[in-house]
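pinned: reference chain
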Amino acid sequence: MHHLNCRKNNQSWFKILLSLIARYNNCQSYEFLQLGYQEVMVVEIPMVNNVEEYPPTVVEILRSLYFSEDPLTSVELKDQLARRGFSIDDRTVRYHLSNLEKDGFITRFGRKGVLLTPEGSEEARALFVFDRIGLSSMETEILITKSDLDLCSNKGKAIVNITAVQEERFDEAVSILKEVSNSNIIVSPLVAFLEGGQRIWNYRVPEGHRAILCLSSANYDVVLRRCGVHVETVATGLFRIQDHKYKGFADIISHSGTTLSPGELLVRGGFTDVMSAVRTGRGYVTAAIKTFPSFMYETVVEAIKNCKNDNISGLFELGYLMPQKYQMSIKDRTRGYMLVFGGANYFAPLVEWGITGALSIASGLFNIQDMHVPQAKIQ
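pinned: its structure tokens
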């Protein structure tokens, strides 16, 4: 029970505020008690789930499943936990899995193992929220590490963005993607489609929907990491285009303190007008600021030159030292930089036109050889 006090004679507005707080938190009960010159509100607020509610072994099981693309068996989970310092037997793992299944957090795939359900993924996202904060979150690092993308040969698993549209609006969505695919403000024209019920990483396509995948700008991080260059995406912002000319950033969101993709926030928040930029050359699109050690500049230039092809684009500015107007901190003065249009731009018109509200940035890996430009697939 939480007791919140307010003086009746000069803070009656506080009574209204506390009532709203109680209702917002779905309180089981709340009441005002008269205690002399004071009025006390007694509010019973249910506690939300947090990591302390689960035994450490269960937390690590959920962590392993959340960051796994494929089903895991009890033996594989036991081995992963052993590497993290947890010595438990198969029987204990199976016991915890049984409880997680009762809670609706996992689903079984026979001898292949178990995967998180959508409810399990949601629970894990909340548990590991602080693992997902910052310039290089655990989710992003795992995707970059597991990607074997080779842009020179157009083979390997690439990092993809995901959206889902209702089946009855799928053709409309593809028609828009066809138009956007010819623009120069996207990372790549390649897309892929998934049916309802299919799964990629921790994302399961809702029934009655079809998922659309496109390349994330994080694939530049993959390419440069393989060349020994560590890249940081320090910020994403609204980039203004006028008369088909690049005019610069209008707003910026730093990556240092958020678990949500700034590109996703800008698109879903209604700040972009990508379709206008495509059709008229005037509008706001998303773009990312990526930095790297300046002494690696020549390596970056060579890597970009060697891997440049029709399936990857979006890089529109590259420099040895970051100009002051782009600097987010003092250390940026000595770092090289690159400006890359956001992968979210491809799907932004679908959000702008109300075709979808779902958008997941850098949310999985998909074989680039199985992707295609929209015109090449749709009849």
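why pinned: The CA atoms of residues 79 and 85 lie 10 Å apart. The chain has three domains: 2-44, 51-127, 134-379.
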